[in-house]
Amino acid sequence: MDVQLALSKMKKYCATNSTEMQFCQLTTLRCGGTILLTVFPTSQKQLLQVAKLCTMANLPLCVLGNGSNVLASDKPFFGVVAVTKKLNKISVVGSKVVAQCGAHTTKLFWQLHKHGLCGGEFLRCLPATVGGAVVGNAGCFGQCMQNVLSKVLVWHNGKVQWIDASQCQFSHRNSIFKHTHALVLAVEMQFERGDSQQILHKSQQMLNKKQQSQPLNLPSAGSVLYHPTVCLSALLDKAGLKGATIGGAQISTKHAGFVVNTGNATSTDVFLLIQHAQNVLQSQFGLQSNVEVQFVNF
Ligand SMILES: Cc1cc2nc3c(=O)[nH]c(=O)nc-3n(C[C@H](O)[C@H](O)[C@H](O)COP(=O)(O)OP(=O)(O)OC[C@H]3O[C@@H](n4cnc5c(N)ncnc54)[C@H](O)[C@@H]3O)c2cc1C
Fold this sequence. Notes:
Layout: H1 3-13, E1 17-18, E2 35-39, H2 44-57, E3 61-64, E4 70-72, E5 77-83, E6 90-93, E7 96-100, H3 105-114, E8 117-118, H4 130-135, E9 139-140, E10 143-144, H5 145-148, E11 149-156, E12 159-164, E13 183-190, E14 192-193, H6 196-213, E15 220-223, E16 225-226, H7 232-238, E17 245-246, E18 249-251, E19 258-261, H8 267-285, E20 290-291, E21 294-296
Parallel strand pairs: 2-5, 3-5, 4-21
Antiparallel strand pairs: 1-2, 6-7, 7-13, 8-14, 9-10, 11-12, 11-13, 15-19, 16-20, 17-18, 18-19
Residues 28, 62-70, 84, 101, 125-129, 131-133, 135-136, 138-140, 173, 177, 183-184, 216, 220-222, 294 line the site of flavin-adenine dinucleotide.
């Protein structure tokens, strides 16, 4: 299909769309270049239409939740960004919760609190959508998505189907969805009955710890590197990297695992600083680190 025809059909399907947006408006790092077309689907059907049209016109598609784990390059993106935030319904039946991919994790937390369901306190601390959190098996303080997930509704190779959590190949900050072009449409989760006051207290303690130790006042994508067994931020701190700067990107002075945007960082600044941190970990400690943040359009 002709690209222009596909784009005009997408604009018709998704009333909320823009040809003026840049990744810096859609990512928590606040950097990244222009986008050919950004759409905000309001139904699963619209999201799937966009995905199908992209396939037919051979257009790259980037699905974005809250953009809190993405580093998009400064180059123009000649593709479509579908932002899922308007797909945000959550339903609670007993201890089973079904959420659409674009539901914010804090909104999900408040639903759990309201219904007295525990095990999802960590969700209050994530600046994420449910879909993005499943892709990266996000979590903190010993809890993560894998622990609460029972099924995922996915679109893959033109088919929509529920798959069991056991098929998602979860590991530390990783899932099968990081390595396929599947779309996460919705998730089903199972929680335990608990006391709302305790749920509130536990989540508040987690939030307090985060606020004390992380630079939540500056744009970032959270921890940028990880290692399955070693705490990298401690090593980066030991190597004296806190405060190291390239352009507007800085290794946070508060938490060495975070790269923050001090105001005018380009994605190239952030990228080079991540590479620098990786090189230091390799040369000083002989450690090969993995990049946690997802690169887009590099
Ligand atoms: C201040 C701060 C603190 C953080 N703390 C933590 C933490 O404690 N623990 C932790 O694990 N992470 C943390 N993060 C990282 C980030 O919040 C998580 O990785 C989060 O799960 C990303 O969700 P998102 O909706 O923002 O996804 P996005 O950043 O929008 O997307 C991430 C990836 O998932 C893909 N994706 C998104 N939605 C879908 C979908 N529906 N279907 C298919 N693919 C999709 C995107 O294409 C991209 O590749 C933090 C980030 C920040 C900025």
